[in-house]
Design brief:
The protein has a single domain, classed as Spore Coat Polysaccharide Biosynthesis Protein SpsA, Chain A (Alpha-Beta Complex), CATH 3.90.550.10. It has a seven-stranded mixed β-sheet, sandwiched between helices. 40% of the residues lie in helices and 20% in strands. By secondary structure, it is α/β, with parallel strands linked by helices. Helix 2 links the parallel strand 2 and strand 3. The chain is built from eight helices and seven strands.
């Protein structure tokens, strides 16, 4: 499917307490997208950061024209993502990545260069090191998606995804705003609806700054919630 009009890109980045790295991340993405000649806007959604992230973003916005900052009280990663996706429905493409600098923009063109052939393009995380609990959650996430939606996308929760808005927005609009891990559902619906997709390996490295916000017992409770929401969405969409 090839768009007949000028293509535009909304880069959606949810942010929470990333003061140590956010400037480098935004500047790197701005340089990358400028270099590819893309018409784009960088939409950063600050989810109630309690450090100096927001102040840094405001300073960056004075230097980077396509940077658009959105703020809210803390709602969580999933609702913040959905807000960004739904706000970007007028663009040709939506690309989502996280603000933790774990996946580099230098690999973005591995997806962008294949956009005329596919509607959903995903960076499958490679060279990834995880503690056992997170490995187990990743495995169960994939099994849940494949069992209830069908096999297909492998890295179902990857935060490095390029989505054709005209195809994915109708799906995204139906996902409840309080969904903890909406990317699981989106990956599942790509499988279920037979959306044309492309998946390629993208190097992943562990965060060098900050801390993972959900750990131990809270991590497992959050995982259970995301599994149930993913299953419930599938059962209620029949």
């Amino acid at each position: 499917m090839i768009e007949s009009h000028v293509e535009t890109l909304a880069l959606v980045i949810p942010v929470y307490n990333e003061a140590e790295v956010i400037s480098d991340v935004i500047n790197a993405w701005n340089t990358c997208l400028d270099g590819l000649g893309i018409i784009y806007t960088i939409h950063v959604y600050d989810d109630g950061s309690t450090d100096t992230t927001l102040e840094i973003l405001k300073e960056l916005s004075r230097e980077i024209d396509p940077l658009d900052i959105h703020t809210s009280e803390n709602q969580g990663h999933g609702p913040t993502l959905l807000k960004g996706y739904n706000h970007s429905h007028s663009e040709t493409w939506i690309f989502q990545t996280d603000a933790d600098d774990e996946m580099s923009p230098e690999f973005f063109n591995k997806l962008w260069s294949h956009r005329e052939e596919y509607d959903f393009l995903l960076g499958r995380r490679s060279q990834r090191t995880q503690p056992l609990p997170r490995k187990l959650i990743s495995l169960i996430s994939r099994c849940v998606v494949h069992l209830f939606y069908g096999r297909g996308v492998w890295d179902v929760n990857s935060p490095f995804r390029l989505m054709r808005t005209s195809v994915l927005s109708p799906i995204i609009a139906k996902i409840p705003i309080n969904t903890f891990a909406p990317n699981l559902i989106i990956s599942g619906m790509v499988n279920l609806k037979k959306v044309t997709y492309f998946e390629t390996l993208i190097p992943h490295h562990e965060r060098q700054t900050g801390n993972v916000s959900i750990r131990k017992f809270r991590l497992f409770m959050a995982a259970l919630k995301s599994f149930w929401q993913t299953i419930h969405f599938r059962l209620s969409s029949n």
